[in-house]
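Here is an idea for our session: we take a single protein and study its fold together. Which protein we use is up to you, so please pick one and set it down. Once you have written the record down, we can walk along the chain together:
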Amino acid sequence: MRWAVLDTSVYIGHWERRLYEDALTVVRRAFIVRHSAVVLSELRRGARTREAQRRVETLARFAAARWEPTAADWWEAGGLIRKIGDAKGWDTSKRRDFQNDALIALTARRHGATVVTANTRDFALLARALEIEVLAV
């Protein structure tokens, strides 16, 4: 069976707007889902209500395996962000926002995993640059 990592955008869309139920059913059947430490951190940072905090804490507790970026991933992310950011004319803010996506993608690549995301624009750039598989919900 193949591996998958769910991007933050999928959790937020599902939890806040009840989106992606059918897609998540397909993903659960086709992949073993692993959790990105970057995604868990993004979710925790954005959990502003008690309900959201409980949901994120529960997810973190049940995350059987947490995949983390290595020092090499951080180094490669810096060069990748510079290259793509320069080509796209991005400002510092956009480059900073893109960093976590790059770290998620690099971690997924290292494990041979597919990234499942609603953020198709940024992850399409990463898919081309890193030759990773991205599944849009």
